[in-house]
């Protein structure tokens, strides 16, 4: 139900959310940033909630061979809340010379290429621009390498650092056989699993140092180079992939997701009207090769909707219910993450049904937190349907100097799902306090409880 609140002139308070109005200088800086992103030849990825987030690909030359080298390639996901889900990562590059891949352990190339000039021993891949994918779980032991064979799925650093690594071994031929003759690969690309990542050039760095199993001796790689890849939501999709709706106990108004929040261009071709119809639709729940979604038809047309409900108000605490709904019939979300920015997240008392971790990219500010599912309980968000939702409640302690229900303060400033920012409703549609409650909601509730207690005692 849409909000009944409207006005020809939007009140000043709407532009002064969090009691802080934009100055003329800030408006100029914002306009400059927008123009910069619009006209830049390549979009520079920067996430203010995860300023150091990136995927670093490290090549360690472990030994030289008669015509090349053997390298261990390690992919570290240093992003706090963006993981690489199924069907996993795809890594590509271009050789600097006429290198070939003799063998691989823990991964494979998607194509062999033309190896007809080789007689007898045939290389694993002869393409100038190989494309590599991770092996699936359960491959024979002699094909495995440390941190390999997970189908390309890599956890977010903030969610599970031990599972945020993927690695494989590659034996390269027709290449340099020393630090002075080897040429670094170039034009690296990373899909994770879709577009959005931009990779910089390979750079030689100090050689990686390894500890032996007994941790009493150090060895080091013969040569090491790094490639850094950063993510940009602008490159990944022209539309958001999620939206947010609001409601509260003090107002009957439910603020829905904005219409066409995730784009309505293909609404007639890729959505189904209802769950009952979906149950009888041929091909439902069947992924397509191009990973095209099949959505439940909604006014917002988003695969994911996050609903934030202000549920209860106590004297020293207040309670929020958070629900995540999946409208995509062709997608299960494994190891999902939800990030919210709200000034009272510095006083989270208890989180029910979800795991929670505060994110503090700037030490002096603690207003951002990451929610994620409990292992083997609700870390899998099922495809659209009766089971396609997860929910939890959050208990927060009030800060009496800043706490208020006025001017949309109780609702988050930013929401991310799986690392992508969700579209929020416009501020003038937020559930607002009734006029009678604007004085002091807590005092009114306390007075009502006191009157009720007196009445019960009299009778």
Structural class: mainly beta
Q: Give the CATH architecture of the largest domain.
A: Sandwich
Through-space gap between termini: 42 Å
Task: Determine the strand fraction and express it as a percent band.
Answer: 25-35%
> How many DSSP E strands?
28
What's the CATH class of the largest domain, please? Mainly Beta
Overall shape: elongated
Assign the CATH topology of the largest domain. Answer: Immunoglobulin-like
- Low-confidence runs of at least 5 consecutive residues: 1-43, 436-449
Helix percentage range: under 10%
- Into how many domains do the coordinates divide? 2
Largest sheet: 7 strands, antiparallel
* SS summary, helix count: 4
Arithmetic mean pLDDT: 85
Radius of gyration: 27 Å
Brief summary of the model shown:
The chain is mainly β. The protein has helices at 24-39, 233-236, 275-278, 441-458; strands spanning 55-65, 68-77, 90-94, 100-105, 107-109, 131-134, 165-173, 186-191, 197-199, 203-205, 209-211, 218-220, 223-231, 242-248, 251-255, 271-272, 295-296, 304-313, 317-326, 333-334, 337-341, 348-352, 354-359, 368-373, 380-381, 389-397, 414-417, 420-421.
